[in-house]
Amino acid sequence: MSEHFSVERGLFDDVMVPNYAPAAVIPVRGQGSRVWDQQDKEYIDFAGGIAVSALGHCHPALVGALKEQGEKLWHLSNVLTNEPALRLAKKLVDNTFAEKVYFCNSGAEANEAALKLARRWALEVHGEEKSQIIAFKQGFHGRTFFTVTVGGQTAYSDGFGPKPGNIDHAEYNNLDSFKALISDKTCAVMIEPLQGEGGIISPTTEFIQGVSDLCKQHNALLIFDEVQTGVGRLGELYGYMDLNVTPDILTTAKGLGGGFPIGAMLTTTVIAEHLKVGTHGSTYGGNPLACAVAEAVLDTVNTPDILAGVKAKANLYVASLKAINTKYDVFSEIRGKGLLIGAVLNDKYQGQAKAFLNAAMEEGVMVLVAGASVIRFAPSLIIPDEDIALGLARFEKAVASLA
Length: 403
Prior knowledge:
Blueprint: H1 9-15, E1 27-31, E2 34-37, E3 42-45, H2 48-51, H3 60-70, H4 83-94, E4 100-104, H5 107-126, E5 132-136, H6 145-150, H7 154-157, E6 167-170, H8 175-179, E7 186-191, H9 205-217, E8 221-225, E9 249-252, E10 263-267, H10 269-272, H11 288-301, H12 304-328, E11 331-337, E12 340-345, H13 353-363, E13 365-366, E14 368-369, E15 374-377, H14 385-402
Parallel strand pairs: 3-13, 5-6, 5-7, 7-8, 8-9
Antiparallel strand pairs: 1-2, 2-3, 4-10, 9-10, 11-12, 12-15, 14-15
């Protein structure tokens, strides 16, 4: 038997590296869109573990898949494949532009694989001159040294010594800024089909179409980072499906496992062949447990009912947030798409998003921030309408306490 001892918030400061500053509250169980802490206080979950818990907490289909696979097979080496991985890959291929799939454990790893593949493709097909990677300011692509350098936030990438080279950043939604950087030496462009961490910013049609056209013109690979926007979050299975633009490589994670760590990189056969045996790998990537859970997530989310429900629930959020704002005048804009919504604080409340998050927590509702002045909502895709109403009533109390 393992030894049990009292677990309190103070223990974090004793035993954990100080790169996080978690709340005083320690959640101990969740069901659907509700979570309870050690004191049995209930919270409505509008954060979804940062757009991860796409089907809420302890969804029966996911619990069932985990238990069933947990009795069969947990892990194998890459020398062998397994049934859940092959089934999941087939379903991803059948439901997207992609023809080939690579599995890993996180969004950062999926993006790392995408960037390494793009560089390898450019080197082998076009030669070493073609190595520039273009991404966007305020973008976010993960925390490995390569992905954090490609991400457009120096606060996350500075202070660790020399960075991977030949990476440039354009302004999101500014086609001229992008046009000034791209050339025949560009090997890849990495972009979010809606900027998440950067403030919940949707691309204009002209911009995203222009980026795609210029990539084709200069023979550069278009990489869509759909770690946050994928798996139904925006109301389509993947965000690109609504933009009339198809990427060459797509990365997915977060919601894909519904809370179990998994990531995937999707691409075409022609591009994929450059990651031949031995060029890239992951010990845990494609393990049977993760793939069995992800398959259950995909089967559940990828239905017309659930995807239409995302759009309907989004309308409910936006209408209610606007009603709250009519009373208290704290937001300049409610933006986003599907169930990735940003409430942008107006000039009077600049930089105070964290204060709103803390006040919401006090009232029993969990929200997120996206930068210092945007409150982010990324709830379960199947959150019941009554939980939305109750959570927003609690959120309104938090707003009232600060306004």
